Amino acid sequence: MRRALPAALVLLVLLALPIGAGSLYSDFYLSLAIRVFAFVILLLGFDLLAGYGGLISFGHAMFFGTGAYAAALTLKHLTPSVWAALAVAVVVSAALALVVGFLSIRAREIYFVFLTFAFAQFAYHAVNSWEWAGAANGLPGIPPPSLWIAGRLPVDLDRRAVFYYFALALAGAAFLVARRIVGSAFGRVLVGIRENEERARFLGYDVTRCLRRAFLISGVFAGVGGAVLASFHGFVAPTFYHWSVSGEVLLMALLGGMGTLVGPMAGAAFVIVLGDILSSWLAERWLLVMGLIYVACVLFSPTGFAGIARRLGALRDAAPAERAP
Amino acid sequence: MTTPALALEGVNTFYGPSHILFDLGLTVGEGTVTCLLGRNGAGKTTAIRTIMGLTPPRSGAITFRGERISGLRPWQIFRRGIKLVPQGRGIFPPLSVEENLRLALLRAEAPEPAAELEKVYALFPVLAERRRQRGQTLSGGELQMLAIARALLGRTGLILMDEPTEGLAPLVVRTIQETLHRIKREGATVLLAEQNARMALDVGDWHHIIDDGRIRFSGDSRSILGNDEIMTQYLGVSPR
Prior knowledge:
Chain A has about 325 residues and is mostly helical. Chain A has helices at about 5-20, 30-50, 60-75, 80-105, 110-130, 160-185, 185-195, 195-200, 205-235, 245-255, 260-280, 285-300, 305-325; strands at about 145-150, 155.
């Protein structure tokens, strides 16, 4: 009940957001929210791997970009169906995660971070030079995707509000899937591996295989996030692959609190929304403020927003007991 | 000595350049409690880790029920029914008692997982009372019970116990000792690495004395209790 009420309120606000768009406030905020939903999907995948499995990747931009390009190429050359675009993004990002995971999960800690970074940089430079993928100019003019329901009813996702609900539904579905994974036996195994790999090994777990599976799932989430953003913008560029995206993902997760699912989602929303507000006030100096926020978070609440919420919850629980005679 | 379930032959283990186990040879009889006794730093933990595949041997052979297991990975060794109760308990602190047990149960080839859980809860009622409590909130004795309970789940061919009484209060040591007697009565095969010689000599059927990574003596409890030199030199216990 204590958790259900805030969650219901957030959902209500999100569902109502498009109502006032264009009249009460600029419908640019819907675009911002769609960007948040795309990053939420990416962050959920990142949290499964880093927060639960204990493997910090510095290359998730690679899967985000791959999902984006796969969706963009599908929409541009094959079909306007958003489902087909998503399916292709899932398959391609999964295939890439399979290969990168197979090669990277031999290493741990800083070596794993470096390997994922190196693969992502390789992908960034490859996309920058591939003419068929638009090279440095990217792929403009992606046609607006369509959403067919039961094969009959085409819903034009060109309208911002419609796409907003579509992205919200996808982010919600991604959250439910991630929560299911975390609550499953596999989720407990991941926590076990994060806590102590050796213990998981002598309890019969092939740790490498488990982590590769987590990496694959994580890559697919990131790919779907990229596909959502590319389908919405109608444009993709190599910046999707840039290392700063991987860094941003890590900071969002740290700020929100890794290993909680909700924390990184909140971290994504906070960074994107505050980044927009600050950049409109402070122009390029907004990064200074964000930097201070990151430093304060690491110094005063290394467990992020989730840690702050936990401490506030503990204080609230302790207060009535202290008042009791 | 009954048929050996586990046999080590000429096992040499290294930590980097340091040679720890020297041509180690020992056997563990089927359905017996065999103890590996020795002082701190004698090589007991390394021997246990070597058998479990956590610190693989550089040479020599380890066979379990006739199958060579040296060279296998820990999870493959586990799936042959070899369970480890490690030094320092080795549970997962953020997980609850039941989650810790379920994690161990997943790969333990138990046809009826619920019945397996009830079996260990009956053996350790305190764990049933604390089933929803996180591992990090348990006492040292409860943690040890959880670590032992975990090893008893599912198909178990051999239990490797590394200093299960280390750091425990005498009352808890007695509980662990009683549990070992009970496990033994049920026919389990156990290799117990222990510093607490009195407890090991009470529970064990057969003993290997290890010192500087070499087996110095093997025999039953009576032969060790009757050997003052072994008792004082290797076990640090004054003979009665």
